[in-house]
């Protein structure tokens, strides 16, 4: 067995009624851990994970680990897959999320995040959660990105998806469309772009990242005829960053920006709202894309899809996004440690 030299990556199994348990079991059927030369620790109800794997005909190779204490994690010298047991609150019915298990799902996130903050783990990768099952326990729960920002006491985070040779970040995330314009300010855009510039340099080793910025309105406002956000908010931020020596360009009409002739000479795109940028990326890479949280003090990646309740309990699913999320987290961790 190859000797491990990398700290573990933690994988939260997500909504227990969804496909997270099967995805984790499918992962532990692969040789990814040995190829990347590090241990992976899957967090969840171990009895549920083992049972769901057996019912789906999946044969994972994993071992139990009783603690995430540094003394335990540093002894995981063999690359492979490990299970850290955290019990469900109530019995889970496959395909039927139960709000009674909401605190269980959030506890998995808290535990993984705290281990990363403590330096015990290198990164956390998250399987999908069911927002509707968590909201009764945590009113206003919007998703992993916002929750982890709250847990890390980080006011500014950026959601970026990576896939199809694209990186698309969002100026706003999970808010109603009618609130987008008011949420985009010069201050918020400046912070978002500064986070992107910093983390693209750290995690992708880009000396001078080039970021293309979309407009908010059709045709990027048509010189003010279709909206003035580009003139009043977006352009001044871009010009200020350019004056500081950063390669930030735009605003560009979103309906024409996502073409190879523009993207091939850039490192990332900043879109103004969720459904402006992500449909293009997901069309190019769905099932292979990765959700990355920028601006956190830890490395966190996730799958690009939801809980797929109808597929839970089967192995009729594609674990490609989870595998890509792990590859991305591994890459980001190595880049960060190489800079230290």
- The percentage of residues in β strands lies in 15-25%
- Termini separation comes to 29 Å
Q: Could you give a short account of the major beta sheet?
A: 12 strands, mixed
Give the total of beta strands.
12
Q: What's the CATH class of the largest domain, please? A: Alpha Beta
What are the low-pLDDT stretches, counting only 5+ consecutive residues below 50?
A: none
- According to CATH, the fold-level topology of the largest domain is Isopropylmalate Dehydrogenase
| CATH architecture assignment name of the largest domain | 3-Layer(aba) Sandwich
User: What's the gyration radius in Å?
Assistant: 20 Å
